[in-house]
Amino acid sequence: QVQLVESGGGLVQAGGSLRLSCVASGTIFSSVSVAWYRQAPGQQLELVAQVTSGGNTVYTDSVKGRFTISRDNAENTAWLQMNGLKPEDTAMYYCTLPIGSSWPGVRGQGSQVTVSS
């Protein structure tokens, strides 16, 4: 059974930084892409960033230049480094893996990120 365990969320002032971590088990982590999604209250789930098994990355426009997604296949871990946080980044953040080619597939319990102005 695939499991994703996230950590690293919290409350930060605007302009601050947080680093989210995601540890995967029960899957061949190195062979799949990993993505971070987020969902703000009353909003739809939104793709934030994705990294392929080969290390190629994609970011939603609103976080480009501020967020960095990375992974360590030997540690079955992915990270989302978030710098220059803005109040509009406030959301529950989810680490996800695909099910087949469908996104989001498996996701973790979520990490709350709250950015105060």
Largest sheet: 7 strands, mixed
Q: What is the chain-wise order of helices and strands?
A: EEEEEEEEEEE
Contiguous low-pLDDT stretches (5 residues minimum) are none
**Mean of the pLDDT scores?**
95
Helix % is: under 10%
Large-scale geometry: globular
Distance between the termini: 40 Å
The number of helical runs is: 0
**What is the number of strand segments?**
11
Radius of gyration, rounded?
13 Å
Q: Strand content of the residues, in percent?
A: over 45%
Structural class: mainly beta
Description of the structure:
The chain has 117 residues and is mainly beta. It contains no helices and eleven strands. It has strands at residues 3-7, 10-13, 18-25, 34-39, 46-51, 57-59, 67-72, 77-82, 91-99, 102-107, 111-116. Strands 2, 4, 5, 6, 9, 10 and 11 form a seven-stranded mixed β-sheet that branches. A four-stranded antiparallel β-sheet has the order 1-3-8-7, with no helix packed on it. It is globular, with a radius of gyration of 13 Å. The model has no long low-confidence stretch (mean pLDDT 95).
List keywords for this structure.
mainly beta; 56% strand; 0% helix; 117 residues; 11 strands
Summary, kept brief:
It contains no helices and 11 strands. With 117 residues, it is an all-beta fold.
Task: Describe the secondary structure blueprint for this structure.
Elements (H helix, E strand, L loop, with lengths): L2 E5 L2 E4 L4 E8 L8 E6 L6 E6 L5 E3 L7 E6 L4 E6 L8 E9 L2 E6 L3 E6 L1
Parallel strand pairs: 2-11
Antiparallel strand pairs: 1-3, 3-8, 4-5, 4-9, 5-6, 7-8, 9-10, 9-11
